[in-house]
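[[Sequence with tokens]]
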Amino acid sequence: MKHTKLLLHYPKYGGAPNGLWQMESYAIILAYVYLCAVFRVNGEVLFNNKNQLFCTNHCLPQVGREQSRKMVFRAASFECFGKVQGVFFRKYTQKEATSLGVVGWIRNTSRDTVEGEIQGPAEAFDKMKIWLRTTGSPQSQIDNAEFTNEKDIPELQFNSFEIRKNK
């Protein structure tokens, strides 16, 4: 079994000496290490989770495309109804998604709703769905949140959570 030397860089929070944390074979990676960048190995996204790195305490096998295919993510389209425009709903949604490690997009619609797509690891995905149904921005009032096309996906189609122009 080959093992890969990993190099993490998280300049915003410093994290480790010189902002770098180097891990060799059989390294132990703690779950939920807070980062501020997408984690890549050899240009391939290993964990597309800006704030949490989901690993085990086992030695890491050769990583890259093969490893990322083994991970299963959840995806869904959503639309939120109620007082969700003009109350910073999109900005708070972007902030929450980023903190959970969920990727996708959000935009206002001409129906006075917001719509978008979310993708991420199952636990983070479920937390984001609950947040969209119940929390929103401080000034918002969510009457309903609908989720459609919910499915498992082998890899994430987005690198971050973005606010898109109005539909």
Summary: The chain has a mean pLDDT of 73. The helical segments are 65-70, 89-100, 122-134. The radius of gyration is 17 Å. Residues 6-70 form one domain.
